[in-house]
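Field guide to reading this record: the first block holds the primary sequence, the second block holds the structure written as discrete tokens, and the final block holds curator observations. Each block starts with its own label. This record concerns UDP-N-acetylenolpyruvoylglucosamine reductase, catalogued under organism Streptomyces jeddahensis.

BLOCK 1 — SEQUENCE
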Amino acid sequence: MRVQELHDAPLAPLTTFRLGGPASRLITATTDDDVVAAVREADDTGTPLLLIGGGSNLVISDEGFAGTALRIATRGFALDGTELELAAGEVWTDAVARTVEAGLAGIECLAGIPGSAGATPIQNVGAYGQEVSSTITEVIAYDRRARETVTIPNAECDFSYRHSRFKADPERFVVLRVRFRLEDAEGLSAPLRYAETARALGVEPGDRVPLADARETVLKLRTGKGMVLDPEDHDTWSAGSFFTNPILTAEELAAFHARVAERLGPDVTAPAYPAGDGLTKTSAAWLIDKAGFHKGYGDGPARISTKHTLALTNRGSATTEDLLALAREVVAGVRDAFGITLVNEPVTVGVSL
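BLOCK 2 — STRUCTURE
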């Protein structure tokens, strides 16, 4: 293998939280073949394996990882008409910028999301009215169970809100490449689905705008919430949204409405969005705020972002345990206030809430 290998290697610098202890061994692979070889070696020797892309969705324990951490640093951006193929290690936000420059719509509202392209199908990454499941055609992955590289079409990825078959079975697949089908709308964006984006652009939901305008507006909105990486801004030393928006059954929704009325008064209406199959999605950020956790909450080295209640941040000297203590406090506070248990979006390694 033509790879870089380090021992007792710090992992914190490879994560956007800048938290976590060292890995027994860190391998950086720059080709698909090297990725597969490293995975096979770990599987053959029974060595625990941690996959790292952009590190924007990882919470690693202070003790680190007793095994092989594999950093996927593959590169590849191939555009054929409206068909796009990205290597798993491609920087996502750079790839979005290149599709906008090429005049292709479909992922422009996903600008500024940190991390790598390979992580996008795992989480079914989405923001500002777009999700990658709408444009992904297939995922090329190494199947650790079958010990072969497979092509998985969109319909078999089991995409749902911030979820997929890859997230449901994290030990099985290693994403190598992701293929998308974008749209040539003569320089215009896809129809805007998010009211905040449309409002910022001075148009109505469903309208199209110049691609570059859509991307720039999303970047400004994200920056205002501390959701675009900036080494000098501790509000961005985070994993972006730490909790997913809860999806409630009709019964859970009724109980939630009762708790809202009891706590905040009968005239207060909680955010509610149809989520299909009789389900309703509400806002985790709203729940956190109304449970008493304001922007900037906390007096320790881990605090809620000063720009967005959904982001938990490392103010520079935090440990993973500091972060988890804050997360647990928020989860308990929201549960006590509204009867809803928030679920963390980042992947935890060696720890749990």
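BLOCK 3 — OBSERVATIONS
The chain has three domains: 4-72, 77-224, 234-349.
The longest helix spans residues 320-338.
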